[in-house]
Amino acid sequence: MSRPAASRRARRVTAHLLPRTSAGAIAVTGGDGTWSVPGARVAFGQDPADAARAAARLSPEIPLRPVDCRTEFATLPGPDGPVELHIDRMYYTAPAAGAADGALAPAEALALPARPSAPELLPAAPAHPRPRLERVAAYGVVTDAADRVLLSLIAPGYPGAGTWHLPGGGVDHGETVRAALAREVVEETGQRGAVGELITIANHHRTGEIGPESDDTEIHAVWVFFHVFVAEPTRPRVTETAGSTIDTAWFTRAEVAALPLSATALRGFAALTGTAAG
């Protein structure tokens, strides 16, 4: 008897638009219980916000507001055996334009079956000759009741070495974005926090970077930022070994302003203040 084929893992990112009516509801299309909102697969290097605009046929200049990130898991039959598909879905909102078939509360719209569906996302992207690395990462603006901010120091040998960073990191296969952030906060700082509201979703696309296979790697990352609150702060300590974090500490807001910050931290703080990151 032949052994069943081992399953293969695959990751996908999608972007969706929730058109918001003047009454605060979400405009939906379809009917007979098959309501849907615009969505599309995010191509390598593509800003998820651009993918959401294109799916909804919006002009590039129309601003979108990130509202949520949800993770979906599916095991599907593939040409070479089962595929364990991990889908991170980015949701945005913008004022609705034109007529709609119906309207739902925001929570109901977020709970709709997402399109493109898992089977529609199964086909792999065309092969590319250049080494590529794609990932989704979650970062937290971590605070306590005294309004202190928790940061981690990037270790030598890692991008951004010597700068202070928002706790967080890559989302593992089979892990939700919020669960990944809670895990990273514990590993990098020893603190247990409650992951709260989404702050923003950012696109990071670079070429000529150091990767696992080449020093000339094209990198595409989707960074998802959340508020995290630590109700019972303790003395921070790095619990991971041989990782990218060498130190961690609580800082006042005034102290943070004087620190060398990583590009990711600058992006997260800029989203909070409504300023452009450098």
Automatic annotation (TrEMBL):
Database matches in Pfam families: NUDIX (PF00293)
PANTHER family named among the record's database cross-references: GDP-MANNOSE MANNOSYL HYDROLASE, MUTT_NUDIX FAMILY PROTEIN
Species of the source: Marinitenerispora sediminis
Residues spanning the membrane: none
Keyword DNA-binding assigned: no
CDD domains assigned to the protein according to its UniProt record, in alphabetical order: NUDIX_Hydrolase (cd02883)
InterPro entries for the chain: Nudix_hydrolase (IPR020476), NUDIX_hydrolase-like_dom_sf (IPR015797), NUDIX_hydrolase_CS (IPR020084), NUDIX_hydrolase_dom (IPR000086)
Signal peptide from the UniProt entry: none
Keywords in alphabetical order: Hydrolase
Cited PROSITE patterns: NUDIX (PS51462), NUDIX_BOX (PS00893)
UniProt cofactor(s): Mg(2+)
Superkingdom to which the source organism belongs: Bacteria
Domain Nudix hydrolase intervals: 132-273
Name of the protein in question: NUDIX hydrolase
GO molecular function: hydrolase activity
Keyword Nucleus: no
Assigned protein family: Belongs to the Nudix hydrolase family.
